[in-house]
Structures are given as C-alpha cells and as structure tokens.
Amino acid sequence: MSAAGSRAEFAELQERLLGELTGTVLEIGAGRGRSLPLYPREVRWLGLEPDPQRRAQLTRIAARHGRHEPVLAGVAERIPLPDASVDAVVGRTVLCSVADQAAVLAEVRRVLRPGGVYVFFEHVAAPPGSWLRRLQQLFAPLSRRLYHGCDPTRETWRSLETADFSHLDLRWYAAVRWDLDARYIGGTAHR
Questions:
Q1: What are phi and psi of 107, to 5 degrees?
Q2: What pLDDT is stored for residue 182 in this prediction?
Q3: 37: in domain
C-alpha cells in the first residue's frame, strides 16, 4: 500500500491501457459507458451490465460511439460467454460491488483467451487504522444501499493477488478524487 500516483497519473494509466487493447474486449459492469471513448475503433466491444435501466442507457451510448453489439444482461459472477472467448476484460470500479470477488475473477479467467489480459481500475480500502479507513467503515452501509452495493472497505488487491493470474501488475493511486474512495488501484492481470 505504499507509493501512490496522482490523479493525472491514474487518468493516464486508464487512457494508455484501454487504448492499447485489441481484438474482442468485454467490459464488465460497463455502467454509463465512460470507457467507450478510450477504446481503439477496431476493438470489438462487448458490455456486461446487470441493471436493466443502465443496460438500456448503455446500449444507446454505445451506439453513439459506433458500438452496435447488444449489451449483455448478467452479473460478473456468471458471465454469459463461452470459455476463452475474449482477448481482454475490463473492469472499472466493479469489484467493490460484486457479491463474490473470487467468483468474478474466476469468470474473468474463464472467458479470457490464453494470453488475454484483465484491465482493472478499482477504489479500495484505505490503510488499516487510518482515519480514512474508519470513515469508510462508517460510510459502508449507506454506500452499499445507495451505490449499487459498493463497499468502500474492500481490500480488492488481496483478491487479485490470489486469483491465479500468470502475471499481476498493480499500481496504487491516492486522491483520485476527494471522497471516501481516496485509495485506488489500477493495472493488469494476465491469463
């Protein structure tokens, strides 16, 4: 949990990692489609979104970005795609709200082709014992209700470290925005 990059470095990492993707890319919990402008045009983008209202909105947003594949209905714990069917999976602030992080990461590995990459950007728990961690713990019950199950106290890096990826490149970022989600991680995990 040491060296943390800046807000600008976090944005640069997102732009670089998403801009380098090729082939078929699945974005889990694609939400409002904020990542869509960052993908190369030649990428075949697939979105997965469990919320019906967000899915309908995302379908319209994706079409405006030239993405006409249907947005998949489902949760990240049960991705409705065959084994080894995508070149990359992207998740932006998804693992904070899923029911089972280990199940999601197993599904990500399952749908990735050999050599595929999982690109992640997640807000995570602040260091244990810090004032920010205590605030996150107080805020967590409200956050889970208001923000689609989001739990700001999750130590997501631990789940990534034990998910059986062949290589994990994880970087820490602080003060990405000033709120209770002040610790972020971003990086890649390879199948």
A1: -65, -40
A2: 66
A3: yes
CB–CB of 180/135 below 8 Å?
A: yes
User: What is the average per-residue pLDDT within 143-151?
Assistant: 79
pLDDT in tens, 68-79: 998 999 999 999
User: Per the structure block, which two tokens stand in for 154?
Assistant: 């999750």
User: Are the C-beta atoms of residues 114 and 88 closer than 8 Å to each other?
Assistant: no
Q: What is the β-pairing status of strands 44-49 and 72-73? A: parallel
46 lies in some domain: yes
Q: Is the pLDDT of residue 179 over 70?
A: no
The total domain count for the chain is 1
Judge contact between 113 and 85, C-beta under 8 A.
yes
Element of type H or E holding 77: none
Owning domain of residue 94: 4-124+153-190
